[in-house]
Design brief:
The protein has about 375 residues and is an alpha/beta fold. It folds into two domains: about 230 residues, Aspartate Aminotransferase, domain 2, CATH 3.40.640.10; about 130 residues, Aspartate Aminotransferase, domain 1, CATH 3.90.1150.10. The chain has 14 helices and 13 strands. The strands form four sheets. It has a seven-stranded mixed β-sheet with strand order 1-9-8-5-4-2-3, with helices on both faces. Helix 1 packs antiparallel against helix 8.
């Protein structure tokens, strides 16, 4: 079944409504386009979304992770436990603050950090944990924070993909320690580029503000001081206005994503992909926000590799796909630091076989049926 006659279906397409586009135009005409009143409003609404906790916005989810570690006091000589399955920024920021990343293998079912392995990885130098909520599915937060309290560790939650996800009926960001969100273009809520830190108190929020803009504090009309080494991480009002428009629609976005995820499960109930043992995500509609729908290709039972599979999806069926993510510890930067194949087998198997399918709010269930039909057909033609 060739689908070339149909329009190309991209891996992701942000949904920006006309009110938001008009709002951005108003900001551009206002003359105040960098950090200003729109950003203040965005932080206020994000704080309300996260149960009233202090929120500070940044120009990326990478900046939020790095500054979150700095606020937590992590630096040279410290160790930070995290997952090898994430965007590489999760580990890179640990190096940026002078600390050492300590990887722990993933749970093959949830694809998140295996909490049963964390305690074995803790040493006297361990100061923090960065759990990664892959595709918007949180780890068991009760267990995570029990470990953190027992060993007196800070937690910087890599909730880049988890805006709108929940644990125990509460939104991610309402509870816990420091929480980092990303608002990149492919996220459930976008500000084009951007991110936010949810913090514990006003003292941490003030530190975040300083780190965001060169460590500067202003007093009066002409008073200025710099008492810490900050950077240039502020979010523009143009981006904040996009974020405000997105936040107003977040509940609809989340409901649409859940409906599409259910359609994916229905589409994979039968067919060649299922028969060959395709790996599906955990069917968690209570906590996850369905940021992505990732399958694990049964490569041992296929006569085609992942790159070839992706090319057929693109060229023959007009469907975009992605890879989220290769195992971080196998990158050259981390092999040079002593990591090697075989150290985290579940992460390595998943990283080598994962394939991310299209999932965005403008898709229809017919689009999902088109994707699952293509996957099944490729599996049927190349199964062994």
């Amino acid at each position: 079944m060739t689908q070339q006659a149909l329009p190309f279906l991209p891996f992701v397409r942000p949904e920006i409504d006309e009110d938001t586009i008009q709002g951005v135009a108003d900001v551009l005409r206002s003359g105040w386009i960098t950090t200003g009143p729109q950003n203040t409003a965005f932080e206020k609404q994000l704080s309300e979304f996260c149960g009233g906790r202090p929120v500070r916005t940044f120009n990326s989810g990478t900046a939020t992770l790095e500054i979150g570690l700095r606020i937590a006091g992590i630096g040279s000589g410290d160790e930070v436990i995290t997952s090898p399955i994430s965007w590489v920024a999760t580990a890179n920021v640990i190096l940026e603050v002078g600390a050492t990343p300590v990887f722990v293998d993933i749970d093959p079912l949830t694809r998140n950090l295996d909490l049963n392995l964390i305690e074995k990885a803790i040493t006297p130098r361990t100061k923090a944990i960065i759990p990664v909520y892959l595709a918007g599915l949180p780890v068991d937060m009760d267990r995570l924070y029990e470990i953190a309290r027992t060993y007196k560790l800070r937690v910087v939650e890599d909730a880049a993909q988890a805006i709108g996800a929940t644990w125990g009926g509460e939104r991610i960001g309402k509870l816990g320690d420091i929480v980092s969100f990303s608002f990149h273009a492919n996220k459930n809520l976008t500000s084009i580029e951007g991110g936010a830190l949810v913090l514990n108190d006003e003292q941490e929020a003030e530190l975040a503000r300083k780190y965001r803009l060169q460590g500067i504090t202003r007093t009066g009309y002409d008073g200025m001081d710099c008492d810490l080494l900050g950077g240039k991480y502020n979010l523009t009002d143009v981006a904040a206005r996009v974020g405000l428009g997105q936040l107003a629609q977040i509940e609809r976005f989340l409901a649409q994503r859940k409906a599409l995820a259910r359609a994916y499960f229905d589409g994979f109930e039968n067919g060649a992909a299922s028969a060959l043992g395709i790996g599906l995500p955990v069917r968690d509609f209570e906590n996850g926000n369905w940021h992505m729908f990732q399958i694990a290709l049964p490569l041992a039972r296929l006569t085609i590799d992942r790159a070839g599979f992706m090319q057929k999806m693109h060229d023959t069926y007009g469907i975009g796909t992605g890879v989220h993510y290769p195992a971080i510890h196998l990158f050259t930067l981390y092999r040079a630091r002593g990591f090697a194949p075989g150290m985290f087998p579940h992460a390595e198997r998943y990283g080598a076989s994962t394939l991310t399918l299209p999932l965005f709010t403008q898709m229809t269930e017919a689009d999902v049926a088109r994707v699952t039909a293509a996957v099944n057909e490729i599996c049927e033609h190349h199964g062994k």
